[in-house]
Amino acid sequence: MRGELNPDETLLWTKLQQEIERAAAACPGVTGVAVASLTHEAGCVLHAEEVFPAASTIKLPILVQLLMRARAGEVDLAQRVAVPAASHVLGSGVVAYLAGPVMLSLLDLAILMIIVSDNTATNLCLEVAGMDATNALLDGLGLPQTRVRRKMMDQLAAVRELENVATPAELVELMRLLYAGQPDAQVAAQALEILKKPKNGILNKALPPDVPVANKPGWVEGARCDAGIVYLPRRPYALAIMSKYAQCSDEGHEQALITLARMIHRWMSVLDRSNRYGRAVYEIS
Predict the structure, then answer these.
(1) pLDDT tens for residues 37-89?
(2) 159 in a domain, yes or no?
(3) Beta bridge mates, 44
(4) What's this model's pTM, rounded to 2 decimal places?
(5) Domain total of the chain
(6) Which of 33, 58, 56 shows the shortest CA–CA distance to 240?
(7) What is the CATH number of the domain that holds 133?
């Protein structure tokens, strides 16, 4: 159970809300943000109920559903899977570029899906997890706006509006549920360990290298996102940043979102170091 804020901390969250609104206004296109304390009933939101393209961040619920099937004994993560050339899709990842026959375990495919956002690996994981079953899992977790509607790199489906989507609020809630050991304690722990592996996302670039983060970034043309848990020692928090309709270079788009995430982390780090009166008294290594 999360604790309640004292009045001084409430003022800090009010100030952070103002800073988020200011920083997001400087981002290209439309930006949505949700940040939630994992220790206290506190958070900030901006366009957090808006539906955004989820890009590769949709691989989060696919991972959870795959692990749930393994937990139920329906699949074996150690099972080695042949990856036929006919299943290869390009975009992010490495599997499609490997020479010769490829045999990987389901667990290795899941890890590649997360750390290098491998699209070939993702499609194979989705076949095992099941699209309908993944959406049913999301419904059971109270996340009806987060939907898996197509495989990766299915451009025709995207043109037909079958986009994989989510909201910042629901992505943060998914991370909060995993932190709380849901939908299953073993599955949540395994998912978070995989999500902690190194990757190249907005949060990874925004945070100091010594701060652990469990996250899944994603991007498609005109939209970027990242969602994860930042493991500050005293005040861990969940954060989701999503964007759409960007009208600038990919580099400028990413940098604006990195700047936003870095600002949020700076405020959360102040809270992490401070006592209830706002004095920095804790030495955080």
Answers:
(1) 999 999 999 999 999 999 999 999 999 999 999 999 999 999 998 886 656 67
(2) yes
(3) 35
(4) 0.93
(5) 1
(6) 33
(7) 3.40.710.10
